[in-house]
Design a protein that fits this description.
By secondary structure, the chain is α+β, with helices and mostly antiparallel strands. It folds into 2 domains: about 80 residues, Outer Surface Protein A, domain 3; about 90 residues, Ribosomal protein L6 (Outer Surface Protein A, domain 3, Alpha-Beta Complex), CATH 3.90.930. The protein has 3 helices and 13 strands; from the N terminus they run αββββββαββββββαβ. The strands form 4 sheets. The chain has a 4-stranded antiparallel beta sheet with strand order 11-12-7-13, with helices on one face. It has a 3-stranded antiparallel beta sheet with strand order 1-6-5.
Length: about 180
């Protein structure tokens, strides 16, 4: 039996969960998410303010997908009730970022500004930097996978380099510093 898959997902007030054919629809005032699942291998039921995922067959793939399905539904419920966010810190002399609408313009050491357009459902903002950073970018949304992907795409524009630490990194990311040539 799957330990994660057996746990019920509690549904908070203000969140509406409905099971359609092969998908779970999670809706609140923040938005709506649709979580598909394998209806030939899983059964999703809603009772007493909780969502339960059970297997209908006992093959290897169904056992593998049991916990995954429950986790995806739990992330959707958490996303529409509270939302997800990731913070990125920009390190580097002269590096700066600015947000105009859904466009993030970054001046990060290239000869041209780098522009990232936020996809629908994602909000990009800037905050007051902390810990020696020049700028801080906040990525918010209700879809955990989409928030993580947008944050990874922004970080990829200028990965932190291991000698001086310049670049874009996650809020608590640890950079393994390398010694330069003069350390010999």
């Amino acid at each position: 039996m799957s330990r994660i898959g057996a746990l019920p997902v509690s549904v908070p007030n203000g969140v509406d969960v409905a099971v359609a054919s092969g998908a779970v629809r999670v809706k609140s005032s923040k938005g709506e998410l649709l979580v598909p699942f394998r209806s030939d291998q899983m059964s999703v039921s809603i009772d007493d303010g909780a969502v339960r995922v059970t297997r209908t067959v006992e093959d290897k793939q169904a056992r593998a997908l049991h916990g995954l399905t429950r986790s995806l539904i739990a992330n959707a419920v958490l996303g529409v009730s509270e939302g997800f966010s990731k913070r990125l810190d920009v390190f580097g002399v002269g590096f700066r970022v600015e947000v105009q609408g859904n466009r993030l313009t970054m001046h990060i050491g290239y000869s041209h500004p780098v522009v990232v357009v936020a996809p629908p459902g994602i909000e990009l903002t800037t905050e007051e930097p902390q810990g020696g950073a020049q700028a801080r970018i906040m990525v918010r949304g209700i879809d955990k996978q989409q928030v993580g992907q947008v944050a990874a795409d922004i970080r990829f524009k200028r990965k932190p380099e291991p000698y001086k630490g310049k670049g874009i990194r996650y809020e608590n990311e640890v950079i393994h510093w390398k010694t330069g040539k003069t350390a010999v």
